[in-house]
Amino acid sequence: MEAAISAVKDGMSIRMASEMYHIPHGTLGNKVNGEHGKKVRRLNTFTLEEASEICEVLGRCSKIGVPLGKHTFTRIVKEIALTKGMNRAKFTDRWHRKFLVSNPEISLRILSALSFKKSREWTFRRCEEWISLLQKLSNYGFLDDAEEIWNLDESGFTLAELYNRVYAERGVKEAVGHVQGAETNRENITLMAMGNAAGKMLRPLVLYKGNMHIEFRLRDTHDACYVGTNSSGLMDTDVLTEFPDKEFLTSMTCAKNVLFCDGHSSHLNCVAFLLACLEHEKDIRVVVLPSGQTAFFQPLDKEVFGEVKQKWHKYLRESRLDTSIDVSRRNFPAHIVILWKPDFLPYSFNLGGPLTKGFRKTGIFPFNAELLRGAVNPHLEVVEESELESEQHFTDIAKIFREKIGLTEDRTTSCLLEIRKIMTGESVGSVVALEFHKNSLRSAPQKKRREKDSRLDVSNGRILTESTYISTKKAAIEKSKEKAKGLRNQKRNIEAAEESATDSEDESLSNQGYPCQAPPKRQRKTAKQVAAEIVSDVPAPQSSIESSVEFPEGYPSKTKAKRATARAQTTPAPRKKP
Q1: What CA–CA distance (Å, rounded) separates 300 from 150?
Q2: Listed range (46-50, 166-170, 341-345, 392-396) with the worst mean pLDDT
């Protein structure tokens, strides 16, 4: 308020000052004209310069990929207030809202978590190699028509939406929600989707975990989807070979086609499908995306699956209230077929529009090299050795400040920040964010990996439908199979040697005259033997009359019979009724 009043006194209009300092026009006019009886409130915790530096720190931390949350931000401003001697300063939710209103350049956003290692490994050099590969495909005419550009990807779907906020009585620890089926959210089913840049979607594939196909899973699907089964429930080469051969190779209408997929092992090892594409009458190229960058360059991941999962969870929440909807393993394909249709509103997946948008945002169609270069984060470059040497100089300076001059740790840090500010010509907020950025880079060094065969390297993207790659991959698969077979044979030989050694040891002990011998193997008893043992354990009924009849098999022994006779003799005889 005081800054706005002084600005008006310096010649600025009341309306412009109210817009600049976010103060109502009437309130500021009353203050300037003396028509407001209340005094000006107490000073703000931070000045405009300090608030600007705090906002710059928040913005720079967001740019380098380490955005700060509300809790961390509150801790920082509390430390700053304590340094200024404001021990009673409080930073409530109201203060936080007013800070965001006063500084519109900063706002709260949803955090999108990405792997720091993968983002750091995506450099300008790798990006240029990926752009050169796409440029090569564009020159050959593979990126000219939207009908000829395809994408394939898999995703997991849950069968129940149990973790959701619902209303309940106060004091209830958790609200129980019943579903129609017996499945929980721990059950996932794999779904494979395939479509092109024109928005055309092929029939989906639902992959179950099991050993055999069950007929009832195909009910009410009307031949609108495929159903597969394997032992793991995850995509493998057998399923991948069968599905594209029936659906993808028969759906192409253009002379030239290109299929983009990620670097999953089932995609890279599917030699049969690659050979089928290579030997097809149409020119087909299968291109693997750069490793670790599917979040940026996979069209289905970029725009499609996120919206599909939201609609699927909404459909599950509604199914909890509608008794006519039963979502389970038995009828999951039937529900997918219904949601795959564009007219089933409001739950329809409607994949065509988002997929076209995904191809455009990934820079594949239309081909946009500048958009691809923008995916590289320049703030995540590795610290060079020259910068490490300069950091050593700052360490020596800090040592002089502490030991020779006798400055405290806080004063030493402040002096170093001022020196860096003079050297870089930037503000204190930028210098603080830059220091935080460098420390985060050093804390996670790049992992030294074993060198791979250059003929099979797909880290920067690669065309898989090449004879060199297919022959090399086929040889590598055969070699791995032989190695696994050799390990199995080696394990069997070791077990056989241990068994023979044990047998020879037992024979040597028996030859030396030891009385102890290995116990015989336990044999299974038949049902008759078990029944006979049970009958033998059942005691016979006590008789008060002595009898000389022999006991049949299964009755107590003669000793038990004699004891029963002795007890009967001592017992008085019953009286006869008159």
Answers
A1: 10
A2: 392-396
Task: Please give the angle made by the CA atoms of 246, 250 and 253, to the nearest 5 degrees.
Answer: 155
Q: Which residues of 541-578 are buried (b: 16+ CB within 10 A; e: fewer)?
A: eeeeeeeeeeeeeeeeeeeebeebeeeeeeeeeeeeee
Q: What are phi and psi of 156, to 5 degrees?
A: -100, 140
What stretches of 180-323 show up as alpha helix (H) in DSSP?
A: 237-246, 265-268, 271-278, 294-297, 299, 305-321
Amino acid (1-letter code) at residue 124 = F
Tell me the pLDDT tens digit for each residue of 517-538.
Answer: 555 555 666 766 766 776 565 5
* Sign of CA pseudo-dihedral 69, 72, 74, 79: negative
> Are the CB atoms for 355 and 199 separated by under 8 Å?
yes
List CB contacts of 76: < 8 A, sequence separation 6 or more.
54, 57, 68
In this structure, what is the dihedral angle of CA atoms 56, 62, 65, 66, given to the nearest 10 degrees? 80
Radius of gyration over every alpha carbon of the chain, rounded to an integer in angstroms: 39
Could you please report the per-residue DSSP string of 387-408?
Answer: HHHHHHHHHHHHHHIIIII---
Distance in angstroms (rounded) separating the CA atoms of residues 333 and 214: 12
Name the pTM for this structure: 0.68
